[in-house]
């Protein structure tokens, strides 16, 4: 019985929870704690996962602060992100995470 229960537990969690890597940099330097490994369930969006596991300040889907590192509008420094090496064409709320995704958040001056 015990083995059966363990096997059922394993099957229940397999494929449901997985992880994504977040690299977060400010002016090209990793912020404290980066890279982060966040867990999520298939179908979760990037914004909700980040809000659940990091200190995020956002309004209307736009992130202005990650773990206390804030945008600097007066210097034209804003948070932008890549998904698997490609600049995201959509906001974090629209990015549905997949196992093994690598997300690179960068606080840089807009060119």
Give the class from helix and strand content and strand pairing.
Answer: alpha+beta
- N-end to C-end Cα span: 63 Å
**What overall geometry do the principal axes of the alpha carbons give?**
globular
Low-confidence stretches: 1-14
- Give the radius of gyration: 17 Å
Taking the sheet with the most strands, its summary is:
6 strands, mixed
Beta-strand percentage range = 35-45%
Helix content range: 10-25%
Mean pLDDT: 86
Please provide the ordered H/E string of secondary-structure elements. HEEEHEEEEEE
Number of helices: 2
Number of strands: 9
Question: Layout of SSEs?
Answer:
Blueprint: H1 2-13, E1 17-26, E2 29-30, E3 36-41, H2 46-53, E4 56-59, E5 62-66, E6 69-70, E7 77-83, E8 86-87, E9 102-109
Parallel strand pairs: 1-9
Antiparallel strand pairs: 1-2, 1-3, 4-5, 5-6, 7-8, 7-9
